[in-house]
Amino acid sequence: MHPDVCVVLPTVRDDEARDCVRAYADNARRHGFDTDRLEFLLVTESFCDVAGMEQLLEETGLAGRVFDGPAREAWLAEQGVDDHAALIPEASHAQTSFGLLYLWANGHDYGVFVDDDTRPLPEWNYFGRHLANLGHEGSVTHVGSDESWVNVLWQNQADHGLYPRGYPYGAMGETVRTSDRPAGRVVASQGLWTNVPDLDAVRILGDGDLQGQARTRLTADDYGDDFVAAPGNYLTVCSMNLAFRRDVVPAFYQLPMDDNDWGVGRFDDIWSGVILKRAADLAGDAVLSGGPLCRHDKAPRPTFDDLTAEAPGLQLNEYLWTVVDDVAVDRPADGLSEDGDGVDEGTAPGPDAYAAVARAIADRLATGDFSSWTNGAFLNHVGETTLDWLDCLDALAPIDAAPGTGTADPTEGRADAGLAGARPTDD
User: What is the pLDDT, as a whole number, of residue 398?
Assistant: First the structure.
């Protein structure tokens, strides 16, 4: 049996990476999830303990590989796509994109992103719940607002007052609207977090914290049932606790951050989530948020360091989504709608549909005039790099003995029939 779930962990912290892998593997075994379905991919750098990470995978009996910079370069050369190596920045969280290339080539049906400063909560069947979400059937709460943005922390926002990293400042003070409707096909499952909230530096400073964390903390009581952002609404997608179908890979490039001429950082998962949501809307698919919760133990660091990385892109973050939202497709592709009404009932769009939307958005970004915005030329760079991403996927031939074709049942291997319920139970 080949693993059908690729678990991608970007890390430059040796001890945290080892503890993180053990915690997620222990959670799977505790809940009876078949770990033979999992392949762990640790994306790191050569200044880290690569041998120790490899030994960890062997000791824990987990399938997996460790890729530092030279190993990534060698793998890309083996696949004949080494001319696209610049897609993966070094020592950047955006190097999770290498995990997308790896699972694309190896045919994994599902991907899971985890960060090394997270741990699964013991009462949640972490992998089982994510895959159950991807196989969700039936109604779910749809959330929208008069600002076309959904605060993923909306359920207790009146008490804690938080907006997550990447939420536009211009969309604050929104009026929330909810309704219960069929979810459609769920292509991404975003688990949320307890303890340290995922905030940007400006909001952390506003919360009175200089150590990059925030004084306000979150608990499981701050969340209710799972929900989806209604069509036409955007949300912040954080890659620290996220599962997705391989179909979305073309529209889910973790955008190039940190190592660029404009000094823009920390918007890789946020902006890729905006593109993903537009593609999902056009395909009639859904992004679900809620469980499984994880604990986010963000290490202290100067808040002003994060501000330095975020400041060059703050104005762009206010407007990027409006550019993306204005993009349609010139023709139907793999069941994709031209007008954003979704696909015909019973038709499941595939990766070609997501590639069509990603290419249309990339063309718009690559050729647009954004000179009225600070560092607007960075959006041209994002568009050009995304076009390179799509060319790389086209050139990346599937490796022989690929484990799946995108058709596996995500709920296979669940520990119990009640896994799809809204809340976990302690045991």
Answer: 72
Task: Determine how many CB atoms are found less than 10 A away from the CB of residue 179.
Answer: 10
What confidence tens digit (pLDDT) does each residue in 28-49 have?
999 999 999 999 999 999 999 9
Task: Kindly report the pTM of this predicted structure.
Answer: 0.92
Long-range CB pairs of 360-364 (<8 Å, 24+ gap) are: 360/327, 360/328, 360/329, 360/330, 361/251, 361/275, 361/278, 361/323, 361/324, 361/327, 361/386, 362/386, 362/387, 362/389, 362/390, 363/387, 364/323, 364/326, 364/327
Q: What does the CA dihedral 336, 341, 344, 347 come to, rounded to 10 degrees?
A: 40
pLDDT < 70 positions in the chain:
1, 330-347, 399-409, 411-427
pLDDT digits (tens, 9 = 90+) for 282-293: 999 999 999 999
CA angle 88–303–322, rounded 5-degree value = 60
Q: What is the pLDDT of residue 191?
A: 98
Q: Rounded to an integer, what distance in angstroms lies between the CA atom of residue 271 and that of residue 285?
A: 18
Q: How far apart are CA 77 and CA 134, in angstroms?
A: 33
H or E segment at 114? strand 110-114
Which uninterrupted H or E stretch holds 119? strand 118-120
Tokens of 30: 């505790």
Phi, psi (deg, nearest 5) at residue 86? -70, -10
